[in-house]
Amino acid sequence: MDIRKINDDYSVSPQIEAEDVDIVSLLGFRSIVCHRPDYEQPDQPEFASIAARARELGIEARHIPVAPSGLTAEALSSMTKALAELPGPVLAYCRSGARSTKIFEQALLPL
């Protein structure tokens, strides 16, 4: 896993698998946010499989899909809410980690 720390409460990663959630737990993450739409690529795991394993390990999980075409106001609003509600530290992922970084930066901007 290629985890990049953005700050003490938020890190990003490329796509994770359900079995990676065990490592995420061992690393001390308390929440996972997926920014990748299901079925973006045929070989990616569905978010439901990640969320199910996270629940088993006591990790909160949210799906806030962001299409490669860009960030929507709805996704940004959901992310702002998630950051306020989810226990940290949070691991967010998408295909490469770029969307997870961008939405975090946008969610921190003043209104």
Give an account of the 3D structure:
The structure is a single chain. With 111 residues, this protein is of the alpha/beta class. It has helices at 20-26, 47-56, 73-85, 98-107, and strands at 4-7, 10-13, 31-34, 60-63, 90-93. The protein has one domain (4-107): Protein-Tyrosine Phosphatase, Chain A (Alpha-Beta Complex). Strands 1-2-5-3-4 form a 5-stranded mixed β-sheet, sandwiched between helices. The mean pLDDT is 93.
Q: How are the SSEs placed, and which strands pair?
A:
Elements: E1 4-7, E2 10-13, H1 20-26, E3 31-34, H2 47-56, E4 60-63, H3 73-85, E5 90-93, H4 98-107
Parallel strand pairs: 2-5, 3-4, 3-5
Antiparallel strand pairs: 1-2
Q: What is the compact description of this entry?
A:
The chain is an alpha/beta fold.
Please supply descriptive tags for the structure shown above.
4 helices; 36% helix; single chain; BLH_phosphatase-like; 5-stranded mixed sheet; Protein-Tyrosine Phosphatase, Chain A; TIGR01244 family sulfur transferase; globular; 111 residues; transferase; alpha/beta; 5 strands
